[in-house]
Design brief:
By secondary structure, this protein is an alpha/beta fold. Among the domains are: 4-72, no CATH class; 272-307 and 314-371; 377-509, no CATH class. Helix content is 33%, strand content 15%. The protein starts with a strand and ends with a helix. This is F-box domain-containing protein. Residues 79-130 form the F-box domain. InterPro entries: F-box-like_dom_sf (IPR036047), F-box_dom (IPR001810).
Length: 509
């Protein structure tokens, strides 16, 4: 039998191991055991005893490692607790990653680290909760949340709450979600950033009892309801609103995703940045009127814009502070030009033909400095207008950045038209005359046919682009139909194509 002596605790014995019961079955009539089976059984017993001894040593090792961490840690030994706490606080991030538990990871290094981490409130101000699946351990879950909240002291909180959908009749799930929200409500006076994605019928559980204006600066609300909830009476639907019940919060950044604009009750006067999904036209107009400080607005897949075809407002909204508009449109018309005159940045993502609407908008925004279009082509004479230097009919006079990402090229454009327009807008003499100079030009298309006239940039246009690049203009021309082993940079592969043709012609001569 194997005999071991532990060098750590001094135990000198045979370490317990499961005794193997190995039987030997023979087809022969003799009753004598098989010698190989006997030896194998003895070896297996030694192996099991050795494994037991190894587990014993690993247990000793586990108890020694925290002490080793503390001994070899210059971070703890050379810095006062206050400085060490400040350094640990830099580990906090605002990423919305629910699996990241930075405070717990820091606390697991050593007892000293744990003590410092638990006494550093800023480490515990980011609370990421993802309530999915079964809820058997909801008591321990709430206890952990209470400890987390208590360690954050009086610091402002950033809360990210993600709940899977649950129906009203799923009592167990609703009760658990309610218990978590009630714990968060107890600290509502410290909400600095609140991001929730939850069933709409639970949003009303978010309540507050404020003695002053809520400190909320970032608000993101997302939710959904399925068909079985849409038949609820009107009184129930009113409870879906985000309404803290006391003083209205005044955030400066708001995101509304799959939740009606009219369901969010806040003070819009200080809002400067808004992202909104699936808004109705009247909601957008209400938003623009209610948020006079709005600087940036992202609108994704607006709904009901067809009704604006015959809309002719008697009091058009001219939003003087809105500088950046990002539109993602599917099927609807772009009809915002009567309301958004002074914007400086416009991004449009659409898979429908909005060239006529886009022309009207661009004519109405002479202050536009940045234009990015994706999904569809611009109108036919865009580059002709862009290259015109007529003061009376100057088109987009303030434009300094342009990007176009479209699926397919049409025959309505040619490389000479594009290169000459870019050259005219990026020419240094514009700067000398006090006019804005084009600094960035991105053009991304999908071209499959190498035999077409537009697959390769012609030599003259290529020289223009190369000269502008050397002068510091940020130019990127990409072909999204990338062949294996070939660059998607159209300037690179067009230059290689022309050089190869020159080499071939030299050989032929």
């Amino acid at each position: 039998m194997g005999h071991f002596s532990c060098i750590i605790c001094g135990q000198d014995r045979e370490f317990s191991a499961k005794q193997l019961n190995i039987t030997c079955t023979s087809w022969r009539t003799t009753t004598a055991p098989c010698p190989n089976c006997v030896r194998t059984k003895t070896l297996d017993e030694h192996i099991e005893q050795t494994r037991a001894y190894l587990r014993h040593l690993e247990a000793h090792r586990a108890t020694l490692r925290p002490g080793a961490n503390a001994f070899h840690d210059p971070f703890i030994t050379h810095f006062p607790t206050e400085i060490a706490s400040k350094i640990l606080s830099f580990c906090v991030d605002n990423e919305r990653e629910y699996k990241r538990r930075i405070p717990l990871a820091l606390s697991a290094v050593s007892r000293r680290w744990q003590a410092i981490a638990h006494s550093t409130p800023s480490l515990w101000t980011n609370i990421r909760l993802r309530l999915f699946g079964k809820y058997e351990n909801r008591v321990s879950y709430n206890e952990m949340l209470l400890h987390w909240l208590s360690r954050s002291s009086k610091q402002p909180l950033s809360i990210y709450l993600d709940m899977e959908y649950c129906r009203r009749d799923e009592v167990s799930k609703v009760q658990f979600c309610r218990s978590v929200i009630e714990l968060l409500n107890m600290h509502c006076h410290r909400w600095g950033r609140l991001s929730v994605d939850m069933p709409l019928h639970l949003i009303s559980l978010l309540r507050g009892d404020f003695h002053s204006d809520p400190p909320l600066s970032h608000l993101s609300i997302g939710g959904e309801e399925y068909d079985e909830d849409e038949d609820e009476d009107q009184d129930n639907s009113q409870t879906w609103k985000f309404d803290l019940g006391t003083s209205l919060p005044s955030p400066h950044t708001v995101t509304i995703h799959q939740c009606g604009f009219d369901k969010v009750r806040i003070n819009w006067c200080n809002v400067t940045n808004v992202s909104i999904w699936f808004p109705r036209l009247r909601d957008l107009l209400t938003l623009l009127a209610a948020a006079p400080q709005l600087h940036e607005c992202r609108v994704v897949r607006p709904d009901g814009f067809a009704e604006a075809t015959n809309t002719n407002p008697t009091n058009p909204i001219i939003h003087r502070n809105l500088l950046k508009l990002d539109l993602t449109i599917c099927g609807s018309r772009i009809v915002l030009c009567p309301f958004l005159l002074p914007i400086r940045s416009l991004a449009s993502d659409s898979h429908s033909d909005h060239r006529a609407d886009l022309f009207d908008i661009l004519r109405a925004v002479p202050a536009l400095e940045r234009l990015d279009i994706a999904g569809a082509f611009i109108f036919n004479n865009f580059f002709e207008l862009l290259g015109t230097d007529d003061e009376e009919h100057r088109f987009l006079p303030s434009l300094t950045e342009f990007g176009q990402l479209c699926p397919l090229w049409t025959e309505e454009f040619s490389w000479p038209d594009i290169s000459k327009a870019v050259e005219a807008r990026a020419h240094p003499h514009r700067g000398k005359c006090g006019l804005p100079v084009l600094k960035r030009f991105y053009w991304g298309v999908t071209l499959e046919d190498e035999n077409s006239d537009i697959y390769y940039i012609d030599e003259e246009s290529l020289q223009i682009f190369e000269r502008l690049l050397s002068n510091g203009v940020d130019i990127k021309l990409s072909n999204n139909w990338r062949k294996r082993g070939r660059s998607d940079d159209m300037i690179v592969y067009s230059r290689a194509y022309h050089e190869e043709n020159k080499h071939r012609s030299t050989i032929d001569d």
